[in-house]
Structures are given as structure tokens and as C-alpha cells.
Amino acid sequence: MIWTILIIAVLAALFILIKKNGSSELERPDPPDPELAKQFFSESERRQIEAERREIEAAERVMREQDEQEKRDKRRRGDGGEY
């Protein structure tokens, strides 16, 4: 009985994690409006925000490229990479 409850709890936790990670890109907020930012931030703050945004985009691009490379490697090895 206790094993059944533990298995159900683990499966529920996995489902929640998978659901959360899978939907993170879909729920991404729109980028901020540059005109609106001018009203609230100084020039140096806007430059810093823009630099951080570019840094985040570069990191996301690197992560996507790594994922794609891993998929290609898996397909070459034949161990079930996604198509």
C-alpha cells in the first residue's frame, strides 16, 4: 500500500516537472517596449538592461545549438534521438 502511494507521488511530481519545463517557452512574456522604458529608466540603466537582454539571448542561442547538436549526435549513434 505504501509503495503504491509513493509511486503515485513520484509520478505526479515528474508530471508536474515535465509540464512546467515544457511550457516555459510558451509562457514567455513579451519584450519590454523601448519607448516605455525611456520614461522609467535612465540612459545607463537602459544600456545595462539591453546588455543583459543580449546576454540572455546569446545564452539561449547557445543552449538551443547544444540541444540540436546532441540530437544530431544521438541520431548518428542510433540511440533514439528526436527528429
In percent terms, what proportion of residues is strand? under 5%
Helix content: over 70%
Task: List the uncertain runs.
Answer: none
Number of helices: 3
Describe this structure in words.
With 83 residues, the protein is an all-alpha fold. The chain has one domain. The chain is built from three helices and no strands. It has helices spanning 2-22, 34-40, 43-77. The longest helix has 35 residues, at 43-77. The mean pLDDT is 80. Residues 23-44, 57-83 are annotated as: Disordered.
Outline the secondary-structure elements:
Blueprint: H1 2-22, H2 34-40, H3 43-77
Brief descriptors of the model:
83 residues, mainly alpha, flat
Offer a concise description of the structure.
76% of the residues lie in helices and 0% in strands. By secondary structure, the chain is an all-alpha fold.
